[in-house]
Specification:
This protein is an alpha/beta fold. Helices cover about 25% and strands about 30% of the residues. It contains 3 helices and 9 strands. The strands form 2 sheets. Strands 2, 3, 4, 5, 6, 7 and 8 form a 7-stranded mixed beta sheet that branches. A two-stranded antiparallel ribbon has the order 1-9. The longest helix has 12 residues. It is globular and about 40 Å long.
Length: about 130
C-alpha cells in the first residue's frame, strides 16, 4: 500500500468580521505566543510584509500562497528551528480591492500542526491549515 505523506502548509490566521472591535492580527499573535505556555518554545518574528499583491479570486489562492511561503522560507527556517514567521500579504478580493491576510510559517509540518492545534482552541481568532498530498 502506497501512502502519500500529507504536508501542512503555512497557517492562515484571521479574525471574523462580527462588528466588534479587534486588535490587529500581529498583536493578537504576539500575545498568543507570549501568554501560552505551549507556544513559548517558539520565537515569533516581527511581521514580514510580502512585496506583491496576490490574486485571491482564483481557486485555492490561499493554499497556493501558503505553499509558496513554505518554499520561500525553507532556508531561513531549517528543521529544528523554533522561529516562526508571520507574513502579511494583500489579497485581491475583486479587481479594485485588496484585503490583508496573515500567514504563520514554522520550520516543519509537525510544528505547524502543533501551533494550529493550540491556536485553534482560542476564541480571539481563527486559523486555517491547508493540506495536500505531496
Amino acid at each position: 500500500m502506497n501512502i502519500n505523506p500529507v504536508s501542512f502548509k503555512s497557517l492562515m490566521v484571521f479574525t471574523l468580521n462580527d462588528g466588534k472591535p479587534k486588535a490587529p492580527v500581529p498583536f493578537i499573535m504576539q500575545t498568543a505566543f507570549n501568554n501560552n505556555s505551549n507556544l513559548k518554545e517558539y520565537n515569533l518574528t516581527d511581521t514580514v510584509s510580502f512585496s506583491e499583491d496576490i490574486d485571491g479570486t482564483v481557486h485555492n489562492a490561499a493554499m497556493n500562497f501558503a505553499e509558496r511561503l513554505d518554499k520561500l522560507y525553507k532556508n531561513e527556517l531549517p528543521k529544528g528551528s523554533k522561529k516562526v514567521k508571520l507574513t502579511k500579504v494583500n489579497f485581491f478580493v475583486n479587481p479594485r480591492e485588496t484585503q490583508e491576510r496573515f500567514f504563520l510559517t514554522a520550520a516543519t509540518d509537525e510544528d505547524e500542526k502543533k501551533i494550529h492545534n493550540i491556536l485553534s482552541k482560542s476564541d480571539m481568532f481563527y486559523s486555517a491549515k491547508f493540506r495536500h498530498k505531496r
